[in-house]
Design a protein that fits this description.
This protein has helices at about 5-15, 25-35, 100, 130-140, 190-210, 225-240, 265-280, 295-300, 335-350, 380-395, 400-410, 415-425; strands at about 40-45, 50, 55, 60-70, 75, 90-95, 105, 130, 145-155, 160-170, 175-180, 215-220, 240-245, 255-260, 285, 305-310, 355-360, 430. By secondary structure, the protein is α/β, with parallel strands linked by helices. The radius of gyration is 26 Å and the shape is elongated.
């Protein structure tokens, strides 16, 4: 049912890449996805371009970074682990005393064996990330007057690019479901790579199992990538997207969870909750107020795309988060399979929803359509149906499915469906 080959592909070919919000690592990641899905479209946005309130940053690439002690021994080496460098570090070539060096070393006291993930995307800075165990060794081993050579060979290309990928699976309907995941965090399996693994597996699955709604998959850098994507496609998305899901941290075996959209009552919200109920899976439901990934951008004021998030362990709520401990010991094939099943079911449920929208501005004239008597009098039997039709149309605004309309107008689903067919026949609604 669910292909797991992308687990091995991503583990082998992507996990070692020095990815960021821009750069060669991201471009290679997208090329790997395109290798398996040739119809993936890759888009490039130039550095410096204004996208809403943001600017695309310079493209960042790093060749090497290390710290030498007085004996020319590399005590920190970026090539040992991608997380050893603060993301977007500026070039450095200088001699520092121990006290100065320590100010530029980031570690976690409560996780002494973990390398933390630290970035400085929008301010010029630099630094190294090491385990707290390593830091304590440096403190004990070297004297205060000992000197260290710091080298960071990086480049900030102001004529560079930010890249993202898009893959469409056409459905019977022009209405679309958005499935979004990100490609920027280096060498972290759950927080970063589980989403793309699941998304690639979903593309495989839905290519063979076409849905009523068109499926739009996007692979992009978190935050600035989704902002750039929205800036480029906002009119199309607002016209066609009925809902969708942000996939992140979806590959561990610890628990299941989700985050609802802004008003916590969207079709996406309903679908993911129904999916968990159908699969009989216990899960934790997070409020939108606890957001931290691209659901922020999709639900932001003026954008208002009702996108929910599907997780196993939510970002920030597992100890390995944003550290080197977030590896493929944490993310397993079993974990990926479980996360993918939830996503598949949520997408199917959302795709199968009938979501009517009125074709008439204001209240329609029903007499000319022979849906109401031209004579108005007390106890007119036609007024009963008239009321049902107008009640249905009141809630046919493109945000409610038949189930929700049925509950709102206090009719059985069977009766509601009969009203729906009458309105469709008379071209008073569209789906």
């Amino acid at each position: 049912m669910i292909s797991l080959k992308y687990y091995d592909v991503v583990k082998k070919d992507v996990f070692p890449l020095a990815t960021s919000i821009t750069g060669k690592g991201n471009k290679k990641f997208l090329r790997i996805i395109k290798k398996y899905f040739p119809k993936l479209k890759i888009f490039k946005i130039s550095s410096g371009k204004q996208v809403f309130d943001w600017k695309i940053p310079p493209e960042w690439n790093i060749k090497t970074a290390y710290v030498l002690d007085k004996n020319n021994k590399k005590i920190i080496n970026f090539k040992d682990h991608n997380l050893h460098i603060v993301g977007y570090s500026i070039p450095v070539n200088k001699i520092l005393k121990k006290k100065e060096l320590l100010k530029k070393l980031h570690s976690l006291k409560d996780q002494p064996n973990a390398i933390p993930y630290v970035t400085s995307y929008y301010t010029k800075n630099w630094g190294f990330c090491i385990t707290h165990k390593q830091k304590k060794t440096i403190i004990k081993k070297y004297n205060n007057n000992d000197k260290f050579k710091v080298v960071i060979k990086s480049n900030h290309n102001y004529r560079g690019q930010l890249c993202f990928g898009e893959y469409l699976i056409p459905g019977k309907s022009k209405s679309e479901i958005l499935i979004s995941t990100y490609i920027c965090h280096p060498s972290m399996a759950n927080n970063e790579l589980s989403g793309p693994i699941v998304s690639m597996s979903l593309i495989d699955y839905f290519k063979k199992n076409k849905q009523d709604k068109t499926l739009r998959f996007v692979f992009l850098p978190e935050t600035i990538g989704s902002i750039a994507y929205l800036h480029k496609n906002i009119k199309l998305l607002k016209k066609n997207i009925i809902g969708g899901f942000n996939l992140s941290c979806i590959g561990d075996e610890k628990k299941y969870s989700c985050m609802l959209s802004k008003y916590e009552n969207s079709l996406s919200d309903q679908s993911v909750l129904e999916a968990y109920k159908k699969l009989k899976i216990r899960f934790k439901k997070y409020s939108f107020l606890e957001r931290g990934s691209d659901e922020r951008q999709y639900n932001s004021p003026g954008i208002d795309l009702p996108i929910s998030s599907i997780f196993r362990s939510k970002y920030g709520d597992y100890k390995e988060y944003h550290t080197s401990l977030d590896d493929f010991n944490l993310v397993t094939k079993k974990g990926i399979t479980g996360g993918a099943k939830v996503a598949i079911n949520a997408i199917k449920i959302l795709s199968n929803k009938i979501i009517p929208k009125s074709t008439i501005l204001c209240e329609p004239q029903l007499i000319k359509r022979n849906l109401y008597s031209g004579l108005s009098f007390k106890n007119n039997k036609k007024s009963v149906n008239f009321r049902k039709l107008l009640n249905f149309l009141q809630f046919a605004d493109g945000t409610n499915d038949l189930n929700k309309i049925s509950k709102s107008i206090r009719l059985s689903y069977k009766e509601t469906y009969k009203v729906y067919k009458i309105l469709i026949k008379n071209k008073l609604i569209t789906v």
